[in-house]
Amino acid sequence: MRRKLPIGVLVSGSGSNLQSIIDSIEQGRLDAEIKVVISNIHDAFALKRAQNHSIPTLVISHENFETREAFDEAIVRALKSNRIELVVMAGFMRIITHVLLDAYPGKIMNIHPALLPSFPGMHAQRQAVDYGAKFSGCTVHFVDSGVDSGPIIIQAVVPVLDDDTEETLSARILKEEHRIYPQAIQYFASGRIRLNNRRVMIAEGQCEMSTALHNPGLSGF
Ligand code: GAR
C-alpha cells in the first residue's frame, strides 16, 4: 500500500474544496489522509462535510485570541499534535503569521480564485469581472509571508464571458478549483515537487501545455 500523506485542512466556509479533497482520497486518486479539519468559524458548513466522513474537526475561533500570532500558535499546536506534514488552506479566510509559516516552511498550500499574480486578496472574481479581464481562473500556491504571493504550483484558466457576473464566474472557477487542488496535493504527496527559486517544477509525467487560448475566439487569424 502507498504511504498516505498526513494533512490538516484549514477552512472558514462552505468547504467545497475540502469536499473535492475528501472525494479524491476516497476514489484512490490522492495518497493523503485528512487527520484534522480546523475552522475558525464555529458553524462553517465545511465542518459538517468533514463529520459526514468521520474526519476529526476542531473549531479555533480567532475571536478568542488577542493577536494573530496567538491564534496561529493554537493552530500550530493542533497541527503538530496530529503529526501533520502538509497544511492545506481551503477557503481559510485569515492572514497567517510567521508563527505558522515557521512551523511548516514550504509545507503550506492555498487556493486562490484568480490567476495570480492578478487579483490577489478579497473578491478576486469580482475584481476580474470589474477589470474586464478576458480570462481568469484559479491558482494553487505555496504560502509565503505575503498575500497570495507564494510560488505557484498549478493554475487553471477559464474565460470571462461578456454576460458574467461575480457569481457566474465564481461557479466556473470553482469547478476548476475542485480539479487542481487535489492534483497539487498529489504532486506533493508523491514527492514530485521541486522548487527552483520561486519556480515550482513537477518531476515526471507533466502534460505538455503548449496551446494558446483566445477569448473571444479568433476568426481566421
Ligand atoms: C474558494 O473559491 C477559494 O478559492 C476562495 O474561497 C472559496 C472557498 O470555497 N479562497 C479565497 O478567496 C482565499 N483568498 P469553499 O469553502 O467552498 O472551498
Automatic annotation (TrEMBL):
Residues the entry annotates as binding (6R)-10-formyltetrahydrofolate: 68, 93-96, 110
CDD domains associated with the record: FMT_core_GART (cd08645)
GO biological process assignments: 'de novo' IMP biosynthetic process
Transferase as UniProt keyword: yes
Active-site residues, record numbering mapped to chain: 112
Gene Ontology molecular-function annotations: phosphoribosylglycinamide formyltransferase activity
Enzymatic class: transferase
Family: Belongs to the GART family.
Residues that, per the record, bind N(1)-(5-phospho-beta-D-ribosyl)glycinamide: 15-17
EC number assigned by the record: 2.1.2.2
Residue(s) at site: Raises pKa of active site His: 148
Family annotation (PANTHER family): PHOSPHORIBOSYLGLYCINAMIDE FORMYLTRANSFERASE
Cited InterPro entries: Formyl_transf_N, Formyl_transf_N_sf, GART
Ranges for domain Formyl transferase N-terminal: 8-185
Protein name: Phosphoribosylglycinamide formyltransferase
